[in-house]
Amino acid sequence: YPGARLLAVEPSDENVGFLRKNTATCANVSILVGGVWPESGFLRITNPDDEPWAYRCELVKEQTPKSFRAYTIGELIAMFDNNYCDLLKMDVEGAEHEIFARNCDWLEQVGMIAVEAHTPAAVDCILAACTRHGFQHRVIGDKQVFIRPEKDRAG
Length: 155
Hints:
Helix content is 23%, strand content 30%. The chain is an alpha/beta fold. The mean pLDDT is 90.
């Protein structure tokens, strides 16, 4: 897919360094330092002594030297010209329940979702939100996959 545009959102400086190194020759990849959350604001890593791939975040009231920007999925999708996301791949280390439990209007702008759910309650929450928005559900490996029927795709 040479015309694809990819956006990676990552809060860890170490992981951002790896991303930049691994995608240095890919002009279609943008890296945004930050985190995904159901509301805009600022986040902080709650377990900074863990491995960078396992970081978890929480919302903070104001920006601090250790906080970073929280983006909603709607804000991220709006960064693209057509205001639509064909494939949303999400591994947000437990924040998926928060993201799918509240304002999910952004689901209308997504064609397919592959999400790693970290708890059974998160699976139930994601399934309920995606079903309400017309997605069909499959499990592929460790990912919950939601596909909007072709006839219902906006993009």
